[in-house]
Amino acid sequence: MNDQVSEKDISKTTISPEVLHKITRLTTLSVQGVSRMASVKNSLAQVFAQENAQGTKVLIKDDKVYADVYVVLFSDMNVRDISREIQERVSRAITEMVGLAVGGVNIHIMDIDFHA
């Protein structure tokens, strides 16, 4: 009988959805042109009522992360460029920080902040 147990047999890392929400939210807020996160009115927002989940929905399916990001942008910025920047940064942050593949990052522009 083999008394040795491989590290593979006993090691496991679990990532809380709250961690993915926080990574997504903080990364999004770091993009120039993002004013703030928008409210998400659904059951997920009720489950994660904390500020960490505000403006994000994250789903893990088939070992891939799918994120929906709800934002309010400043009016003097290019919406397409900001959206692509958010997608790239969120995807990279999740992959680098957590090691999960990203299946998609959908951006939902909920409002535009106009400067007076």
Kindly describe this structure:
The chain is an alpha+beta fold. The protein has a single domain, classed as Alpha-Beta Plaits, CATH 3.30.70. It is built from 4 helices and 4 strands. The protein has helices at residues 7-10, 17-29, 43-47, 79-98; strands at residues 34-37, 56-61, 64-74, 101-113. Strands 1, 2, 3 and 4 form a 4-stranded mixed beta sheet that branches. Strand 2 (56-61) and strand 3 form a beta hairpin. Helix 2 (17-29) packs across helix 4 (79-98). The N and C termini lie far apart (76 Å). The model is unreliable at 43-52 (pLDDT under 50). InterPro entries: Asp23. Belongs to the asp23 family. This is Asp23/Gls24 family envelope stress response protein. It comes from Candidatus Brevifilum fermentans. It holds the Pfam family Asp23.
User: Which residues form runs of ≥5 with pLDDT under 50?
Assistant: 43-52
Global shape: elongated
Order of helices and strands: HHEHEEHE
The number of E-state strands comes to 4
Proportion of helical residues: 25-40%
Determine the mean pLDDT.
85
Decide which structural class fits the backbone. alpha+beta
* Annotated CATH architecture: 2-Layer Sandwich
Note the beta-strand portion.
Answer: 25-35%
CATH superfamily: Cation efflux protein, cytoplasmic domain
Number of helices: 4
Count of the separate structural domains: 1
- The CATH topology assignment is Alpha-Beta Plaits
Distance between the termini: 76 Å
The radius of gyration is 17 Å
Main sheet: strands, sense, barrel: 4 strands, mixed
So what's the CATH class? Alpha Beta
